[in-house]
Amino acid sequence: MKKISKTIVMKFGGTSVASHDAVMSLVGIVKRLREKRPVLVVSAVSGVTEALLALPRATEKELGKQIAAIRKTHLKLVQELFKDKRARAEVMDYVDEQLKKVRTLSRKENVFPKDKDELVSYGEVMSSFMISRVLRSHKIAAEQIVATHMIVTDDAFTQAEFLPNETRKKTRDILYPLIEQKVVPVITGFIGATEDGRVTTLGRGGSDYSASIIGHCLDSDEVQIWTDVDGVFTADPRVVKNAVLIPEISYKEASEMASFGAKVLHPRTIKPAIEKKIPIRVVNTFNTECPGTLISSHHTGVGLKAIAFKRNVILINIYSNAMLFSRGFLARVFGIFAQQHISIDLVSVSEVSISVTLDNSGQLDSAIEQLKEFSTVSVYRDGFGVVSLIGEKILSRPGLMSDVFSLFQKNRVHLQMISMGASDINVSLVIPSPDIVLAVTLIHNHFLGADNAPENATRLKE
């Protein structure tokens, strides 16, 4: 089937579908961009994913109350969004049908990861149906699409990866006829299914990833992430009050920011877009006049652009004299982590020791026991965080690290570990968790304050 020109994929997050005003803004955005053939991806209503995940732990009495609370959340929205009683009844009948399935799943004696994936999928299923009917009520032809029919994944439940060839064929077969008829598809974010039809999820925040996957499959002109912030900032504006909006950054910089704690994008969002050179735009549902941040292959200058952070990481120090002048020691260590499904985040190596931070804990206890067979291992499960300085050719600024060390020394911030990427785009600092906010603020004010912000950056309005 031929490529359809001028499609844009628009992902709307949980807060963008959680209130009357937010949904009306969504409707206005779709109307305004109708000629660009929008394809919508929606998250569950804000708070519903967490509520669904809590259900298997509930007693029978609590279960009824908690499901009733989820229903009430949707009912309130439906009453605000639909004037027509028949439209209200249609949506609530659909919600009730899904909540019956939720109740059945929640009652299972043993809830395995595959069951959790199916359980949590109903948040997006309900929201996508509701949004499709809201669009119809505003004379926009729309159709709900449950992504389990399109996005084909492996069976890594809770963190599934999509299978490109299978997903591309199904996505085009389902979406192209709708787009040709000028129908707006409203697709469930966050979820997919294995080849044999079992529901999977793409990781928390995976609706961003869903949008990027669909854009990749359709060769879309742009992927838009509609959220509740104006775009990508030089630091988290909730932590650094004088953070500034960055109008454009590169794929590499955005990938590093997402991987090292920036909350605006799901970490895996960038990869499918990079492969097809599809720009990603991060924009605010509640401030549609703001152009947001464009993420693309364009070179946007060198030096420090932004600071990301993680408040808590697992830090492991591995010491062994056998490491000195030996071959294969690092491979042995990393092989153990891989075998136990543990993803390593940062690495720092000396002649006789390795320090790593972990992206996920996997089967950590088993890995530690194996490592102790040939080394001394210290594990810090809490107490440390990571501050990451991000920008292409970040070390091109003379004295960058000496200034950071000086700031830390003056303010008694203890530096536990430092890791520099080979690509010269990220310098990450492991420090005590209580000092994270102080460190981020100090570094931002020194390097990215009013006189040093990236070119064309926009200051956050009060």
In short:
This protein is of the alpha/beta class and 462 residues long. It is built from 13 helices and 19 strands. The protein is 38% helix and 22% strand.
Describe this structure in words.
The mean pLDDT is 92. Helix content is 38%, strand content 22%. With 462 residues, it is an alpha/beta fold. Strand 1, helix 1 (20-32) and strand 2 (38-42) form a beta-alpha-beta unit. It is globular and about 75 Å long. The longest helix has 25 residues, at 113-137.
Secondary structure topology:
Layout: E1 8-12, H1 20-32, E2 38-42, H2 48-54, H3 60-81, H4 85-106, H5 113-137, E3 142-145, E4 152-153, H6 164-180, E5 184-188, E6 191-194, E7 199-201, H7 207-218, E8 222-227, E9 244-245, E10 248-250, H8 251-259, H9 270-276, E11 280-284, E12 293-296, E13 306-319, H10 329-339, E14 344-349, E15 353-358, H11 364-371, E16 376-390, H12 400-410, E17 417-420, E18 426-432, H13 436-447, E19 458-459
Parallel strand pairs: 1-2, 1-8, 2-5, 3-5, 4-6, 8-11, 10-12
Antiparallel strand pairs: 6-7, 9-19, 11-12, 13-15, 13-16, 14-15, 16-18, 17-18
Helix pairs in contact: 2-5, 3-4, 4-5, 6-7, 7-9, 10-11
